[in-house]
Description:
The protein is α+β, with helices and mostly antiparallel strands. It has a single domain, classed as SH3 type barrels (Roll). The chain has helices spanning 83-87, 94-97, 101-111; strands at 24-27, 30-39, 46-50, 59-63, 67-71, 76-79. A six-stranded mixed beta sheet has the order 4-3-2-1-6-5.
Amino acid sequence: MTENVWSYQPTAGHLAGTDLTGYKVEATDGSIGKVDKHSDEVGDAYLVVDTGVWIFGKEVLLPASTVIRIDPEERQIFVANTKEQVKNAPEFHRDKHLGDAGYREELGTYYGTGAPFGGRPA
């Protein structure tokens, strides 16, 4: 895990400026949805993932440090968390949380606590 949860890991294969919208997102134990929005901003990079029917159409915000590998040919992103860890993350509401520093801090703590793969123990 990188020191900053809002930055991509150097080994993830992320290329700045790449449009990740529509990429499938895979947790360690299965698919969690598709990228609906993302940010490449240095120190504030993240993915907004539309979970579809998996958790009833909710969106989740994943800090960039959760990304372990990007496969541009298959348009897939692999994250270092289980579906359960993603599901149990602080709830995300796009209108309320995208610019909310307090929410970012809460999410950063959740994914950056040093537990296995950065999330709370399952």
